[in-house]
Amino acid sequence: MDEQLNGGCFFVSGDKEGVYVFVWIDVEEIERVVRAHQVDVTDSDAVEEAVDRVVMEFNGRLDIFIANSGMAWEETTVLPSPISAYRHIMATNLDSVYFCARSAGKHFCRQHKEKTTFTGEPFAGEELVGCKRGSFIATASMNAHVVNYPHVQTAYNASKAGVVHMCKSLAVEWADFARVNTVSPGFIQSGLTAAVPEDVQDQLKEKTPLRQIGELDEMKGVYLYLASDASSFTTGTDIIADGGYTLW
């Protein structure tokens, strides 16, 4: 995996607060630089400025972008819920992916067509290993595929279904210069699920063939696969990692 990312810029968007982590990896020098910035991912101008700034800081190129911002539905059914709640979750879960894709895509396209850094300089040395195309990965959810009982979260489900189809569409648009894929996790122990009552967690385990709640470490292999050149012939794909929940 390290060889695939040699000289690349690894860009990750975080939780609903808009935390970004940027990792520059240069294997030959055994150098890893990690920086964190906080950005409002529902603001298209702020997202574009952040992406441009980080690409400038890290060697003038962008190879991998993971759009992972998201929030849970905190209301009840549709009728009593305020429209503002719907707009907020759509802005965080769906609009942010569009903004991130648009900001990352222009760099993927430039690098493929012009073979230059953000400042217009030719890339130094040979073409990077494992960087035939950029890789854009967005986090969706198993709720893009099923209505997850006992949760009542129409807006959340719709936002994640939108992420999947948006990325399938982008995979066609960007076939020349980037691969675009999504990951649909099942119920994972994380900040978004910490408030779920224990009895509801027990119901989810019962409905999952593997009879467990997923751990964050169990997701990393999926993202590494899509980020690396191991998936060079994979685009427009949604990988469901849900312990088998959607099989029933």
UniProtKB/TrEMBL annotation:
<dbReference type="InterPro" id="IPR020904">
    <property type="entry name" value="Sc_DH/Rdtase_CS"/>
</dbReference>
<dbReference type="GO" id="GO:0016616">
    <property type="term" value="F:oxidoreductase activity, acting on the CH-OH group of donors, NAD or NADP as acceptor"/>
</dbReference>
<protein>
    <submittedName>
        <fullName>Related to sorbitol utilization protein SOU2</fullName>
    </submittedName>
</protein>
<dbReference type="InterPro" id="IPR002347">
    <property type="entry name" value="SDR_fam"/>
</dbReference>
<dbReference type="GO" id="GO:0050664">
    <property type="term" value="F:oxidoreductase activity, acting on NAD(P)H, oxygen as acceptor"/>
</dbReference>
<keyword id="KW-0521">NADP</keyword>
<keyword id="KW-0560">Oxidoreductase</keyword>
<dbReference type="Pfam" id="PF13561">
    <property type="entry name" value="adh_short_C2"/>
</dbReference>
<dbReference type="InterPro" id="IPR036291">
    <property type="entry name" value="NAD(P)-bd_dom_sf"/>
</dbReference>
<comment type="similarity">
    <text>Belongs to the short-chain dehydrogenases/reductases (SDR) family.</text>
</comment>
